[in-house]
Amino acid sequence: MPAMPTITFIFLEASIEPIPKSIINHPIILKDSKRRKRPPSEILLDDSKHHAAMKDLENCRKRGRPDIIHFCLLSVFDSQLGELSDVYVHTIDGKIIKFSKGLRLPRNYNRFVGLMEQLLKERKIESGGKTLIEIKDYDLKSTLRSIDPSQTLFLTEKGRKIDDLKINVNSRNAILIGAFPHGDFDHKVLEVIKNFNPVYVSLGSKSFTSLYVTNRVICLLEDLFDIT
After folding, report:
1. Are the C-beta atoms of 143 and 88 separated by less than 8 Å?
2. Long-range pairs, 144-150, Cβ under 8 A, ≥24
3. Which end of the chain is flanked by fewer CB atoms within 10 Å, N or C?
4. Mean pLDDT over residues 190-195, rounded?
5. What is residue 221's predicted lDDT score, i.e. its pLDDT?
């Protein structure tokens, strides 16, 4: 097997957020709270359950889709790269969540939601004295600074073709993938990324789902480094 570079996945603007205060008393939210016997402030925003309450939220089309990051994380951790790569999730409200290497996430969506709700409440998930998932005390810029990537690969339809991608095995590579359903990256997020001289990488001229992008990147890296 060829030497492996250092790979860090960062999923951007993922829908891991509690019910916003502006809709916490909406009848749909209160009904869900009663059904789950959990305070509204400790429930994860989910468009499939809270759509009627979300209509007036800012950027509502980008929010309430924790299923997207669930699928993307399962793809990473199901692959050999999950044992080798650092994984961070940047949430739509600016939190940074770090996932330990080789993590076994719940495959059931409802169990994943419950785990994320526990994380938002306690800020850390531990097992056997080991921290598995935690909310870090810094932002996206500080995260990238701590990684100090030699190369920042930013997946966007405005980039160059992914088939032309070159990765130096001696470098630290940060791979940035959007994890939201609609719209574009927040301008503040784009400004942060620009500070790290990103290589803009594309799968094609149109938009693709986050899961498809994640799987293509995984397959490319596995082929490049003969990971089986």
Report:
1. yes
2. 144/10, 144/174, 144/192, 144/193, 144/195, 144/196, 147/8, 147/86, 147/172, 147/174, 148/172, 149/8, 149/173, 149/174, 149/196
3. C
4. 96
5. 87
